[in-house]
Design a protein that fits this description.
Length: 737
Amino acid sequence: MRRPALRLLPICLAMACAARAQDPAPPAWEYCPDTGTLPLYRPLPVDGAAPADPATDVSALHLDVSEQEVTVLTGDVELQRGDQWLGTEQLTYDHGRETFRTGGPARYQDRGLRLRAASAQGDQRADVVQLQDVDYQFNQQAGNGHADAIELRGQEGTLTGASYSTCPPAQRQWEFRASRIDVDQEEGVGTARNATLRVGGVPVLWLPWVRFPTDDRRRTGLLSPTIGHDDRNGFEYEQPIYLNLAPNYDATLSPRWLSDRGLMLGAQFRYLGPRDARGELEGTWLPDDDLTGRDRGLLRWRHYDRLGRNWNLRANINHVSDDEYFADFGDSLPNSTITLLESSLGVYGRGLGWDASLQVQSWEVASPLLPDSAAPYRRLPEARLRWSRPFARWLEAGIDAEAVRFESDFRDGGNRLDLTPWVQLPFGGAAWFATPRLAWRYTSYSLDQSLVPPGGDNNPDRSLPVMSLDMGAFFEREFSFGDGSYLQTLEPRLYYLNVPYRDQDQLPLFDTRPLTFSWPGLFRDNRFAGADRVGDADQVTLALTSRVLSADDGRELLSVGLGRTHYFDPPRVTVPGGPLLSDEGSSWVAEASVSPTDRWSLGLAHQWDPDGERTELSAVRSQWRFGDRGLVNASYRYRADLVEQADLSFVLPIREQWTLLGRWNYSLRDRQSLEALAGIEWKSCCVAVRVLGRRYAREFSDEQNTGIYLEIELNGVGSFGRSTARLLDDAILDYSR
């Protein structure tokens, strides 16, 4: 009689599934050297293609087939099937009943899991496996645990007296325990009864019943809550609820209790569509704010849709209930000081040598410091086209075109057409370049009546040539210093610009403003943003840059640049409230960066006005990284008559598991702190606790906000409390690098 095939090893797959849990975090045992985990029984297989149905290899020191229906293997029994391995000292298999049992402990390992059981037995006909006193450990992740007993019934399983943690067994800093866990692998869910979360051995959460996922399929359920306190909203608690509505869309409801204001309702809806379409709709609503007595809220819609090979549709629609919303509910200084909220909807295209768009754009005032009339003109609509093409090796031509309709609730608007055809000759070689360029800029308007000056034209226009020559060279030399080899470059650059003067005072100012002057400003062909003004120019820019590079790896160690624009004729075109222009030339611009090592860097920028004999701008930024986690950032920013600030931030490890975090942003001009943050972090291999205190200015006024943030992060499960990741990323440069 032919004996049926031994099928124990495939059953071990179900054994692994019953213990498997979601643990996205990699192991971090450096803080917990005494891990106490199960050893690897065999080296892990190298990733690669494996047979769909590999054969099962069985080996043992002794094989007893004296009984017709029973096979007994004893002594170093091993079963290998692909990456699955089972080891025991004795295995008895009854072919007639299709049952098996081990005569002692059983060990199992596959690519993702290893476990040890005091005994194992099963009925293959009934598809039942029973394990006693089971310890399990994931291979690539830190999750591990114990179960008094496991019973598998096909795709279902029951764990009795089970536990799970990402901490090593010998150092249980946190642990989930449940008297019973039922696992349904077909549905990918588990149900735990009498579940307790223990932190440091102390029960902090008890749930009589809880359902959880056992794979990465999306499911409806509760997400980690957010807890915090600040002096504008009081105590706050937010409990996100995830709704898995369909394979291509889902939603998250976020009720948020603010003790000083009431219940704020938040929601986010995400969706996917055909042709890579995707988007999200989110909003908040606080009915009858207890402090202001009015409804508050925010609405956002973002959408992307691919219309074809070269075209796409993008939407970014935003609306806020009042101009103090971000000041009251913003979670950082940049968010709390938003002044204008942009909305846009358009079709955008790009291809070889061209890009085009047709969009509408509007703005909403979001700050009490600005009147509603300060909102920029709406663009209803705006059409843009940029096209360029090389006609020969040293000949290129193109055109930039724009047509806009400007509208506003507070002032009359008009239409504007702006055309700039151009041609350039990009001569150059390996160590030099010279690019003469000739453009003609034509701008015409159709204005509403109130914008037309007495006796003026409601269809004014302006046309003028724009000529430039951009040329430079690259010189380099090698030298040695100490034990290193280096490469130094010398890069002179000359930029000549000629734009004749045109009287433009009769033209409106829809979107034009002076550009901030900096190193890139030395090489611009217009000192204004927008098409309403074209600055006259007869000027030349001379600049010199030198770099020092490591010859071994090409890393830039030093970069120094110096440049200035000289005016042959003083510029005359300006705008109301614009900066005064020199008769001789621009400020001297100097920039430097020093990076002697990959752990320390220093950046400098300076602008000196020789006419006024004063500093226009000065900035210093330095970063120092030390140890595995240490980081210090220090910077100073000054712009004449506008800003003078100092900024210090740090991540300072004080012991193996303790870290101090801080940031201080101080306005020397206003003599007040803009933001002060201090906190401490304790982090082990499986638990992190952060406590932060923050005080920051409310829209750069004398009023200060104070917030306290507590976050407890359980590695492999999630975090509880107020999320601090975004706050720390905004406050400390390169915090999450």
